[in-house]
Amino acid sequence: MVDQRMVDVGGFRLACQTSGPPDAPPLVLLHAMGENAADWDAVVPALARSRRVRAVDLRGHGRSDWPGDYSLELMQADVLSFLDALGLGSVDLIGHSMGGVVAYLLAQDCPQRVRRLALEDVPIPRPRERTTPTRPDGALTFDWEMVLAVRRQIDVPDPRWLQRLSRISAKTLVLAGGPHSHVSQDGVAELARRIPDARAATIPVGHLIHHAAPDAFIETVSESLEEHLRPARRP
Which stretches of 144-208 are DSSP H helices? Predict the structure, then answer.
């Protein structure tokens, strides 16, 4: 059963879908730009067998409020406030694309709050060629002003983000989509090298790994997340 609720994070609300045993270890899912919590529907049932899974609509997306003020740092602060509002100390965190940037910002600035980290086809924070996105026709399930603000930051990221990747203490899985992804795979590989104790893996199905290969995604991510639940080996 999926529980849908709104969580106040300091003046506005984030929507959240929760599933899994209430006493299971907490896992938070952060979606890509223009998506929402429902984007994880194909993999949540399997992840929720052993986790209390919370899939969040980031600000400007889905059922969450659209406050008109957007940045990746604000999204990071929202997630931290979300954890505080629910009384969650340390969590496992999975982020896809833009959600992965939010996830590693949180992990580098608040390492004590992230126990395990999985980054799904996430761009390295290096400047890239700027492009002007075209607004899709019709009604949107996200705020177009959010797209413009966040794309500017992804095109020209704060140089401190790259430097601070070395602060991440969480056991990290960096998952690459391979040559069919539009994200630079050299950049994804560099991301894995710069994060201490990171493990790199490739599922060569393109950027939308958890859609295109849900079983492989679940197997790879679950193996990484379950490591801390295993008892240490005695010498």
Answer: 144-155, 159-163, 185-194
